[in-house]
Design brief:
This is Elongation factor 1 alpha. This protein is an alpha+beta fold. It is 37% helix and 15% strand. A hairpin with a 4-residue loop joins strand 1 and strand 2.
């Protein structure tokens, strides 16, 4: 399942559920565009390592916790290799 969009989908879900603010996504989008990877803005919610961002792949497991008015959510993103 390499390059199937797991991190991008997960980051977008976190954003849509209110787990990260629009300003942060806009910051990721600007940084990603500067590196020629504009479509990676949502993946960068979880892909924090410099090597992950440069190579466009998830290298390490990432954990993200947030809550909505009804649920406590924990998401774990893992490499697809």
């Amino acid at each position: 399942h390499v390059d199937s969009g797991k991190s991008t989908t997960t980051g977008h879900l976190i954003y849509k559920c209110g787990g990260i603010d629009k300003r942060t996504i806009e910051k990721f989008e600007k940084e990603a565009q500067e590196m020629g990877k504009g479509s990676f803005k949502y993946a960068w919610v979880l892909d924090k390592l410099k090597a992950e961002r440069e190579r466009g792949i998830t290298i390490d497991i990432a954990l993200w916790k947030f809550e909505t008015s009804k649920y406590y959510i924990t998401i774990i993103d893992a490499p697809g290799h």
